[in-house]
From TrEMBL:
Protein source organism: Flagellimonas zhangzhouensis
Transmembrane annotation, as ranges: 6-27
Keywords per UniProt: Membrane, Transmembrane, Transmembrane helix
Protein name: Uncharacterized protein
């Protein structure tokens, strides 16, 4: 093969190679864009289905936090016996039962939010136990001590409820 023939062959091949590279680049760009579009549409469709479920989970946890707020809990749960320890255990049992009832909601919220809710629950139980260590001997006096405690400082569930509200508002942005 002579130099002219090789040059002529190269002249025929060069446009084909350039066209092939450009076609490959555009095809790859197109498939990447289509992949992104499919992901977006899939995410959008799943968001339509999961958002109401997530909001319901946040609503249930907000209700839980409201129900375990010390002053709400003490007013709602009346003592059944004359024993202070029985009443203390009854209050704690109410909190634990309510928490266990809503345990599955954690899969719909962030780990940080769930951790804050658990911390509020544990802090509320701790406040009940610390009030139970007082010198009182009747459940009515224990109720008074707990209510006095809530007037002195903010309930742990109020801080957790504020965080839940913040996280729900972040869902919209």
């Amino acid at each position: 093969m002579s130099g002219d023939q090789i040059l002529q062959l190269f002249a025929y091949l060069l446009p084909a190679v350039v066209t092939g590279v450009v076609a490959f680049y555009f095809f790859r760009l197109h498939t990447k864009n289509e992949d992104g579009r499919r992901r977006f549409l899939l995410h959008k469709d799943s968001q339509k289905e999961t958002l109401p479920i997530r909001l319901q989970a946040y609503e249930r946890m907000a209700l839980f936090l409201e129900r375990i707020t010390l002053n709400n809990l003490v007013v709602r749960v009346a003592p059944k016996t004359k024993s202070k320890n029985d009443y203390e255990n009854l209050l704690i049992n109410q909190i634990e039962t309510e928490f266990e009832h809503n345990l599955s909601q954690q899969i719909y919220m962030t780990d940080e939010c769930w951790s804050i809710i658990k911390t509020a629950k544990n802090a509320t139980i701790q406040a009940i136990r610390s009030a139970g260590m007082s010198e009182t001997d009747s459940p009515d006096k224990l109720r008074e001590d707990i209510l006095n405690q809530t007037m002195e400082k903010q309930s742990p569930s109020n801080a957790a409820l504020a965080y839940v509200k913040k996280e729900v508002s972040d869902l919209w942005s």
